[in-house]
Automatic annotation (TrEMBL):
Record-linked InterPro entries: Glyco_trans_2-like, HAD-like_sf, HAD-SF_hydro_IIIA, HAD_sf, Heptose_bisP_phosphatase, Histidinol-phos, Nucleotide-diphossugar_trans
Protein family: Belongs to the GmhB family.
Alphabetical list of Pfam families matching this protein: Glycos_transf_2 (PF00535), Hydrolase_like (PF13242)
The protein, known as: D,D-heptose 1,7-bisphosphate phosphatase
């Protein structure tokens, strides 16, 4: 049977409990349910749920939260769900049918999204906006992806700070990598969230994310990402007309602005319920939205003038020490016993000449076990520096496995510490190691990984590695090719 996991990023909405109850009632159960708590660190934690793994994201945004989730899944498929959707009783049966029948090059299967209609009246502007999910392409309200496809494109672009456009960008990159995306027959219900008076104004922040997509894909970005037409040209015209009020042509500008404002407000009012509160909201927000939309687009242009597709170029390489750079001598505290692996010095020098930052991330549990001292460990590391040339960062975990620290590989703490010291984001770092713990640590931190097997590497670690190289020279070729 196909193995699948569910990843749910959340900011603690009460609807999460209903979703997890729906999931628990399904006839087919996922291998893992991973709830990624994206509330800020100072906010109250999201409650634990029976059978669910709760992972903290600390307010990094839904793209980063989903990446944290799928990297913990360890299954063939990952299903992303929003925390406010509801699942019909046949959802998992249809999902499993979709996944098991998917052709090898199908990388993702989307659900069909039902948005309830309001009873006894026409929908409000916000309800009509939410109803657009019914025809949205590749929306992660319910989208299943092959883990291999996610690994190939390095998951979601974490530069997207909100739940907007990050799913369209992922879908584009997955298809560019040669995978197919299809829509299945399973369905979910996506209720309309409550909206305040200024909700339609606040969502204009998404124009900054549109700027990022344009920077990545060029002026044809809407077609490439299947995002559909936008209204920015009309908003620009409205703002320009308003600016004309400050010139000698203020009368003409006033007429133009009034005409464009009236068209926008009328287009939003006529399809709606036309109640007094809704009309008032449309009249006020229609005057404000063009300015907020244009302001956010300009802010996005400023932040993303020349962005490349995620994850961008490799800027740093972190090596495991024992078994990768030097021959493994268990619990070695003697610098005289340090011997470089064949090709290690040349590999490091090639990376250095290419302008990459270079470091080491290593577990040294011998310190925690009392088998060597910190001074002996430091002497050995100093000898490695002498043989290779001074490296840019050394990150060492001295703890024993039973200490349950956050730095010991396969956790990603060492890599995150190295990233902070180097000033390089984890997604632009490659970790080169010889065992599965090195690959898992890279995945946990959001870095890329290359496995260089040796006699101690287990067969299953070789098979599951996202990238493999016969030796350090081939690994460096891979790194330089990824630049």
């Amino acid at each position: 049977m196909t193995a699948w996991s569910v990843v749910v990023p959340t900011i603690g909405r009460p609807s999460l409990a209903d979703l997890l109850a729906d999931l628990a009632a399904q006839p087919n159960q996922p291998a893992r349910v991973i709830v990624v708590n994206d509330r800020p660190a100072e906010a109250p934690p999201v409650a634990n749920f029976p059978g669910a793994l709760v992972v903290p994201a600390r307010g990094r945004g839904p793209a980063a939260a989903r990446n944290l989730g799928w990297r913990r899944a360890d299954t063939d498929w990952v299903v992303f769900l929003d925390d406010d959707v509801r699942l019909p009783s046949d959802w998992s049966a249809l999902l499993l049918r979709h996944l098991e029948s998917a052709a090898p090059r199908i990388g993702g299967v989307q659900a069909r999204i039902d948005v309830p209609e309001p009873a006894g009246r026409r929908p409000t502007d916000w309800e009509r906006s939410t109803a657009g999910l019914r025809t949205a392409r590749w929306a992660t309200a319910d989208m299943a992806y092959r883990t291999t496809a996610l690994e190939q494109v390095h998951g979601f672009d974490e530069r997207f700070p909100r739940a907007y456009r990050e799913d369209a960008d992922l879908a584009r990159r997955v298809r560019d990598a040669g995978w197919q995306l299809v829509r299945g027959e399973r369905r979910i219900v996506h209720p309309v969230r409550p909206a305040g008076f200024w909700t339609s104004v606040r969502v204009q922040k998404g124009n900054a994310d549109d700027s990022l997509l344009r920077a990545i894909y060029g002026p044809n970005w809407r077609t490439l990402t299947e995002c559909g037409p936008g209204r920015l040209p009309l908003h620009l015209s409205t703002v320009a007309a308003a600016a004309g009020l400050l010139t000698k042509h203020r009368r003409i500008a006033a007429v133009l602005w009034a005409a464009q404002y009236a068209e926008f407000a009328t287009r939003r009012i006529l399809p709606g319920p036309r109640t007094a509160p809704e009309i008032a909201r449309m009249l006020v927000t229609s005057a404000v939205i063009p300015f907020v939309a244009v302001g956010n687009r300009i802010a996005g242009w400023w932040r993303h003038p020349n962005s490349e597709a995620w994850p961008g170029p490799v800027r740093a390489v972190l090596f495991d020490r024992d078994g990768t750079l030097v021959h493994d001598v268990p619990y070695n505290g003697d610098p005289a016993r340090v011997r470089l692996v064949d090709g290690a010095a040349h590999a490091v020098e090639r990376l250095r000449r290419a302008g990459l930052r270079i470091g080491v991330v290593t577990n040294q549990s011998g310190v925690g076990r009392g088998l060597l001292t910190v001074g002996q460990m430091t002497d050995v590391n100093t000898r490695v520096d002498e043989l290779l040339g001074r490296l840019d960062t050394w990150q060492v975990c001295p703890h024993a496995p039973e200490d349950q620290c956050q730095c010991r590989k396969p956790r990603g703490g060492l890599i995150r510490q190295a990233a902070r010291q180097l000033g390089v984001p984890p997604h632009q770092i490659v970790v080169i190691g010889d065992i599965g713990a090195d690959v898992s640590a890279a995945r946990s931190a959001g870095a890329r990984a290359i496995l260089v097997p040796n006699a101690q590497t287990r067969a299953e670690e070789i098979v599951s590695a996202p990238a493999r190289a016969l030796d350090l020279a081939a690994a460096v070729d891979w790194v330089l090719g990824a630049r």
